[in-house]
Amino acid sequence: MTAYDPLAGLPGRGSPDEPPFDVVLAGTVFLDIIFTGLASLPTGGTEVWADGMGSCPGGIANLAIAASRLGLRTSLAAAFGDDDYGDFCWRTLEQQEGVDLSRSRRFDDWHSPVTVSMSIDHDRGMVTHGHPAPMSSTGLIGRPPRTRSVLVDLAEAFVPGQTSWVEIAQHDGALVFGDIGWDASGAWPIEVLDRLEFCHAFLPNASEAMAYTRTETPNDALYALADRVPLAVVTNGNQGAMAIDSTTGEEAQVPALRVPALDPTGAGDVFAASLVVGTLAGWGLSDRLAFATLCSSLAVQQFGGSLAAPGWGDIADWWHEVRDAQGATAYAASVRRRYAFLEEIVPTVPGGAVRRAAATIARQADVGRG
User: Fold this and answer.
1) Cα–Cα distance for residue pair 157/167, rounded to 1 Å
2) Which of 68, 178, 218, 280 has the fewest CB atoms in 10 Å of its CB?
3) What is the per-residue burial (b if ≥16 Cβ within 10 Å, else e) of 140-161?
4) What is the rounded distance in angstroms from the CA atom of residue 304 to the CA atom of residue 299?
5) What pTM was estimated for this model as a whole?
6) Mean of pLDDT values over 24-31
């Protein structure tokens, strides 16, 4: 497969003085074991056969693989066990997906975290086993390398009373893209939003955004967040995404694409990585939102978590199909207008650009077949 660089047109790209990475990440890598095609979930004392299964790196690997497949030079800091699970995840990330692991470490006698995901009726249930990482992200990274951006979870990246690697990276010029997970405690401490002072962008979903801002609608949450961070983005499932970019004065809302969603695992990570691509490349806000929505829509049409993330070959295939499709429905015409910006990008994508067919999950398992 041939790599495609979406940032090739940036001034200084390829020069010795540019940052060595486009995005730096840190977090926990899980081994994901995915069962699909279940007629029902097993109950006590019963056995259920699955039509398909596969294995792939999960957790922060979802984001790392999504970014790397879109052509961003990606570095990941994570702890890996010394077991076969760790071998598999390390090999897949480094050798297959081209993710830099120079700031990751293997730890003796540490069990790699494992998640078993059972997909049924377009939903999923999960069982996870793991232990705390032997070293923090800040300990693994030390002083972060120069990078154009970092993607972080606001709830995990900052330790009270300590200077985190994220703050150092931001001081050195990196754009910080923040996300946040679901708060199972239900507390939704508004103090978490104080960490947005270090962020260029914040990308919560609608439920998270409303809970943290104490607002009643996604639009109200968006405006509240736009008072705190230059680029505020709120995703809202099948309603699409909305954003305000105060650095450019743009406000945009993009509807979701009509697609058959099979597995939502990792779709949010694909959206985030895609938004980073468009932001670093200097695209307009509407095009950035449309691109991120497209990439996450391509991901949910496949089973397999991280390895369902699309590459530029998949994006080129999709645009050619949409552009050349027969028929003139209002919806089809709207999609062609919305994604017309790809007509300038796709011709520069090499014919052998990365596609999902290169995924380990497609070579070593039967997820998505039949």
Assistant:
1) 9
2) 280
3) bbeebbebbbbbbbbebbbeee
4) 9
5) 0.91
6) 94
218, 187 contact by CB (below 8 A) = no
The DSSP annotation for 256-275 comes to PP-------TTHHHHHHHHH
Burial 164-189 (b: 16+ CB within 10 A, else e): bbbbbbbeeebbbbbbbeeeeeeebe
- Mapped onto helix, strand or coil, the DSSP state of residue 103 is coil
- Judge contact between 115 and 58, C-beta under 8 A: yes
Which residues, 6+ apart, have CB-to-CB distance to 163 below 8 Å? Answer: none
Residues 105, 182, 230, 71, Cα dihedral to 10°: 40
Query: Cα(first)–Cα(last) distance of the chain, in Å?
Result: 25
pLDDT at residue 120 greater than cutoff 90: no
Distances (CA, A) of 147 to 70, 89, 171, 280: 16, 24, 11, 11
Q: Residue 84 corresponds to which amino acid?
A: D
Q: How far apart are alpha carbons 267 and 271 in whole angstroms?
A: 6
- pLDDT, residue 367, reads 37
The tokens describing 30, both together, are 């899980």
Contact between 273 and 234 under an 8 Å Cβ cutoff? The reply is no
Give Cα separations from 259 to 62, 263, 295, 301 (angstroms): 21, 12, 12, 7
> What is the number of helices (H) and of strands (E) in the chain?
12, 14
Which residues contact residue 105 at a Cβ distance below 8 angstroms, ignoring those fewer than 6 apart? Answer: 79, 80, 135, 140
Task: Phi first, then psi: give them for residue 353, nearest 5 degrees.
Answer: -65, 160
The superfamily (CATH) of domain 21-41+49-130+139-357 is Ribokinase (3.40.1190.20)
For the chain, the domains span 21-41+49-130+139-357
Distance CA 33, CA 73 (A): 27
Confidence band for 364, pLDDT divided at 50, 70 and 90: very low
The answer to whether the beta carbons of residues 204 and 174 sit under 8 Å apart is no
d(CA 294, CA 256) in angstroms, rounded, equals 8
* Percent of the chain surpassing pLDDT 70: 93
Instruction: Tally Cβ neighbours within 10 Å of residue 214.
Output: 11
E strand or H helix at 138, and its extent? helix 137-141
